[in-house]
Amino acid sequence: MTQAPAAPRATRRRHDREIVALAVPAFGALIAEPLFLMADTAIVGHLGTAQLAGLGVASALLTTAVSIFVFLAYATTAAVARRVGAGDLQAAIRQGMDGIWLALLLGIAVIAVFLPTAPALVELFGTSDTAAPYAVTYLRISALGIPAMLVVLAATGVLRGLQNTRTPLYVAIAGFIANAALNAGLVYGADLGIAGSAWGTVIAQFGMAAAYLFVVVRGARRHGASLRPDAAGIRACAQAGAPLLVRTLSLRAVLMIATAVAARLGDADIAAHQIILSLWSLLAFALDAIAIAGQAIIGRYLGAGDTQGAREACRRMVEWGIAVGVVLGGLVILCRPLFLPLFTSDSAVHDIALPALLMVALSQPICGIVFVLDGVLMGAGDGPYLARAMVLVLAVFAPVALLIPTLGGGLTAVWAAMTLMMTVRMLTLWLRTRSGRWIVTGATR
Questions:
Q1: Helix crossing, 9-45 with 307-339: angle to 10°?
Q2: What is the secondary structure of 5-20 as a DSSP string?
Q3: What residues contact residue 419 under an 8 Å CB cut-off, 6+ apart?
Q4: What are the distances in angstroms from CA 14 to CA 179, 375, 403?
Q5: pTM for this structure?
Q6: Residue 49: how many CB atoms within 10 A of its CB?
Q7: CA distance 296 to 368
Q8: What string of pLDDT tens digits covers the 445 residues of the chain?
């Protein structure tokens, strides 16, 4: 990271207040999203094993499709925050509307792909004949809600850029409650089965999108920003998001390779891997909340031309990332014996998972640095570098991971490779922030 003199205590406290004010609500909103799937799983699970299996396949496809477009939130946050820092709220909201229009167009395109190809996609997963009809039904209905899901991503980015993470938290909580109530009512009350669960989620997602649009449109009218689609603005949003799409796809490839290698090691290994991956994802939410704060804060400082403030905020957020990583790692070590029985009573899975969990615990401070610096560079609009760096990380990780079964390594070796992956990410991000090339001031990069 670019060297900066130690900030005075009052300045550090100011940064701390900003980080907490943005990160804590962001964390709440992040964990609310997985609760949607948990509610669906709990309700559909009582319909039968085939229905639950169908939900599992369909939800995996939907989650992958939506996560690919997470750049709608990241790129919009950075672009809006820069304009907020420059003092031009009208342009900030106009930029946000361009992102929302792009999300709507992409959502329509995804529907056009999913509806006719749903049976083929389900078959590609090797779904059983009994579960496949339920998977296709859930996938086709839920696909209708993808435009709303993507609008929610883009609108969340708008509000984060405006330094507002509380509204996304409130909307996420309301959406979760509505989703659970609608699912229960439609699945059992209306006796619609798995189709009722899908319709409940679609209605909840459109309700969340409507709530976000109400807030954004109200802000647009207050500041005189146009709501009409602007072709040039939409193209600019797509161009800014393209490198982040490459980054996301590379990261998804890393996770897929790790899972594929674990699957080749045996049933107990893949079972242990899934448990550990679920914990790793949960820990990532806590660290990602700091990264989201970093996107908003860094974008605002650079938009205002305050390079010193950006450096000091970056330094302080790295300290936060390390501290939170140490705490999370300690909790993993302390709770290892209690965590595994929540998922399985198989002693073979426990024996495989325990040393791998230790590897996850030791890597958390590294993860803390990675998430924070990733957020800082996103906030700076340094997407092209993030894309190149993540492709490099994938190129290092893939051969190492794929050699594990050949060399006789086990699941601990897989998670050692994951730690190597995070370490290489940390080095690439640290070198970039240290160089200072990410520091580009102004309302646009």
A1: 40
A2: PPPPHHHHHHHHHHHH
A3: 359, 362, 363, 366
A4: 38, 19, 48
A5: 0.88
A6: 11
A7: 17
A8: 444 455 578 888 888 899 999 998 988 888 776 677 777 777 888 888 889 888 888 887 888 888 889 999 999 999 999 999 999 999 999 999 999 999 999 999 999 999 999 999 988 877 788 889 999 999 999 999 999 999 999 999 999 999 999 999 999 999 989 999 999 999 999 999 999 999 999 999 999 999 999 999 999 999 999 999 999 999 999 998 999 999 999 998 998 899 888 888 887 888 888 788 878 888 888 899 999 999 999 999 999 999 999 999 999 999 999 999 999 999 999 987 787 787 767 788 888 889 999 999 999 999 999 999 999 999 999 999 999 999 999 999 999 999 999 998 899 999 999 999 999 999 999 999 999 999 999 988 8
Q: Which two tokens stand for residue 273?
A: 């891997």
CB 83 within 8 A of CB 443: yes
Q: Give how far Cα 179 sits from Cα of 30, 146, 197, 324, 373, Å.
A: 16, 15, 9, 31, 34
Q: Quick one: how far is CA 290 from the chain centroid?
A: 12
Residue type, 339: F
* DSSP reduced 3-state for 70: coil
